[in-house]
Amino acid sequence: METKVNATTVSLVRGDITLEETDAIVNAANTTLSGGSGVDGAIHSSGGPAIMSECRKIGNCPTGHAVITTGGALRAKHVIHTVGPVYKDGKHGESSMLRSAYLSSLALALEKNLKSLAFPSISTGAYGYPVEEASRIAVSTVIGFIRENDGLDLVRFVLFSDRDLEIYSRALKGAL
What we know:
Blueprint: E1 2-5, E2 8-14, E3 24-28, H1 38-47, H2 49-58, E4 66-70, E5 78-82, H3 94-111, E6 116-119, H4 131-148, E7 154-159, H5 162-175
Helix pairs in contact: 3-4, 4-5
């Protein structure tokens, strides 16, 4: 699925984020930037040691914030590492922290003059955020940012499964 919001294309695809050729891909990182499982592990594995080397120099990243490193051996030139919340019950500020993770990533992309970026579904794997709720937050946050800020040509959500793609498609239709 693909749509235009102002001058920015917003697209949804099922695939492997490590294969994206956008200026940056977004990593669902942990606060210590030490690599992990899921998307984080895949990005570090595919991108090689240059990413971890820069992560060590940065040190850490608080929940809801974002930092940037090289893309190493990835097709993307950069990796924006953001930390989403661990889902407890939805009553501990999880939605605002998740929104902040997306906003911080988008703002960092603009600050670095990047034109295209690809997001995974942040916090919905090991961190347990329900995909339905997370998709609505992700899509509405990205669309709101694009409506208020120029500079991005493409924002893509790269989803791991057909189910996630369908859920994000519904969220995108609902947000337009």
